[in-house]
Amino acid sequence: MLTLLLAERPFRDLRSRALLANLPAQLGGGTALLLSTASSTAPAGFEPLSPEADPAAHGVTRVVIAGAFQERPQLEQAFAIAGRAVAAGAALELRAFTVERGAAMRDPPRGVEVLARASPLELREHHTANALMVWRSPAAFRIRPYPECAVAPDDALVSLLPEGPILGLSILGGGQMRQAWTARLAELRALLAPMQGWAMLPLPMEHAASPMDDFAGTRDFLAALLPGTPMLLPELAQEVWRRRQFTPGRMRALVARCGAVLTNQDLPAAFAIAAGVPAIGLALGTDRRAITCLTQFANILPPGSRLLHPPRG
């Protein structure tokens, strides 16, 4: 069986790597895996295939759409490639599938009808399920919440942490995010007051070159709320070190060492909940990742977890 993986910017950032990490094992050991990418190279275990290539002409017998999609053109491209492959006789599966931001707009994406041919069709959370229902998709889905939490923890970086309480921080960067939390400084200072004196650990998952880089966002947030407080693992500021050393498994192990995690991201929140660490989700701007994660796990949140919305008015 020759399998083609379709993902938005596959393996580019830590969340994509976490969402796709266990796919080879799920799809069956020894299965040949192609990765739809414009790049001439692919991560170990995959062979690159241009998005313009004909899947049938390359012998593809199974297509897997996986991971998080944020952009409508990327989502529609995945549906189009899958549609061509299915029309030629390939099977279709969806794994850890998430739509958000532009990809989750109310109007149905072109090619969404191909989802009715998918088995299994596994969604990562209820927000994506709602999007499929708004699109009036007849596809039968099931929610498998945040499957990236099955990534095995790797303790390689834990020895670099000091003794004592640690607050994990992950705040998206960019002007909109900064404006959103700057408007709530008094509320946030009160929230952080009990954590004065804690060590602060950044938990970045965005690509370092992203305008929303959450290492830069976390650094700016900390400087404004707790000026003078140093961040642990300063090596994370180095793009090459972060890409090579900061793996999903290592983030999971670091999160488990924290006394609490404060974030507007989903991956650090999901890892915290899986480890029994209080997760404090922060609703900022139009981004709803933390909202979706904490509401998905609302019935099993560790004690001390909460979701902070902007005050009414």
UniProtKB/TrEMBL annotation:
Protein name (database record): Uncharacterized protein
Organism: Falsiroseomonas frigidaquae
The organism's place on the tree of life at top rank: Bacteria
